[in-house]
């Protein structure tokens, strides 16, 4: 998690994790301007890390079991949430931790209602 991606550092690109207004899905993408991209999509930034399109592809492969069709949107599966909680903790990102708690709570409520 703490490894610097030299190509990403040179280009200024970042792999981002966004959430929708309902806090029910997570979008994984790449951009040089994360805040602008979040505004375009009307989403909230959970967090972003230095990364390239290749890193984005690796993230998509890593979480493919949670992927929504062929989109860049993913269900907030347990392992994906744990990964993001760990990143947010490492980055000391309280806003990300708060958003992730909301996402986790919504997921828990949805699962409870389905049972």
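-> sequence recovered:
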């Amino acid at each position: 998690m703490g490894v610097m991606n030299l190509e990403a550092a040179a280009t200024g690109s970042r792999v981002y994790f966004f959430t929708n207004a309902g806090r029910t899905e997570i979008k994984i993408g790449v951009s040089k301007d994360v805040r602008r991209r979040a505004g375009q999509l009307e989403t909230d930034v959970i967090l972003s890390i230095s990364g390239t399109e290749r890193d984005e592809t690796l993230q998509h492969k890593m979480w493919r079991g949670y992927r929504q069709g062929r989109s860049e949107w993913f269900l907030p599966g347990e392992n994906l949430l744990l990964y993001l909680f760990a990143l947010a903790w490492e980055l000391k990102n309280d806003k990300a931790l708060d958003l992730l708690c909301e996402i986790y709570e919504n997921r828990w409520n949805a699962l409870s209602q389905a049972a």
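Helices lie at 6-11, 34-41, 53-62, 78-90, 94-114.
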